[in-house]
């Protein structure tokens, strides 16, 4: 039965946007091959928002002015926002069907992007982590309204209840956000860290309207909480980047299970040493109960059992960058080498090199 006007209005602007884009609903790319979305440079240092199918076929490579970091995939439409890497003042809304650049989204005055964002599950709202450069380090969550499926309009902001917010993700209720506040103050237009002796990293859970529900920390003040992933049961895994002495051994992976305190995820001291105090991308495969992490400075890729913390994969991989969960396991990109696929089965894990361009991939990847 066709939707009435009242029903269309009740389901939000995203439904109207679906119609505006020709009826594309729950678009999932081509056939059964996952679409990998990432930011990538070329040998000349030019920046691109790219989409490649897992079998190696290129969907698009859209030139953009500034280097991007993470990607916000729209839940209903063939759209994604490629978010500018800190301290970028631009992000790029791209049509995933052909790579058309629909909009260059510019930050508000005295704001810059921190590289991450998410669309609300109804599709009408986008939220991005940003820096208030008038009060350096004060984290804000920028709110943007999607109009006609082609344009994002700034519509306010709320505090992230911390300093230097980085990655954010939805909890299973679809209305609450978990945010990694890195704790590092930076000035506008700069990546210089201004407060390493007075860092204040925190893991915050808040509703999308700004009300703080919880705020937790790790014992080490200089252990910056950066990237995270959320399982379907609400388990949160975070990856840290440590800014203290090189000889310190600190937890670079932490976990918050529903109803439990935020605490280190148990990995071996040998694995911590190989990470070289730096983690990049985190992905959770909820169906297989696995968590994957890249450690590019240590040239190491890991997969652990989410429940037992048993090591599933611990292998060298040159400058491993973005990781994303695909139906049979994980796909991993590289900043300096080849991309790789890890097929995780009950009897063990196999891997193969992917027929994707080698090198120059950024630290995040989203499966479209």
Record keyword descriptors for this entry.
mainly beta, 4-stranded antiparallel beta sheet, 28 strands
Concise overview:
By secondary structure, the chain is mainly beta. It is 6% helix and 50% strand.
Can you put this structure into words, describing what you see?
The structure is a single chain. It is globular, with a radius of gyration of 20 Å. The model is unreliable at 1-11 and 19-27 (pLDDT under 50). The chain contains three helices and 28 strands. With 368 residues, the protein is mainly β. The two termini are 29 Å apart.
Report the sheet with the most strands, covering strand number, pairing sense and barrel closure: 4 strands, antiparallel
Derived structural class: mainly beta
**Number of contiguous helices:** 3
Strand order of the largest sheet: 3-2-1-28
- Alpha carbon gap, first and last residue: 29 Å
Number of DSSP strand runs: 28
Q: Average pLDDT value?
A: 90
Name the overall outline: globular
What is the helical fraction, as a range of percent?
A: under 10%
Per DSSP, what share of the residues sits in E-state strands of 2 or more residues?
Answer: over 45%
Radius of gyration: 20 Å
The residue ranges in which pLDDT falls below 50 over 5 or more consecutive positions are 1-11, 19-27
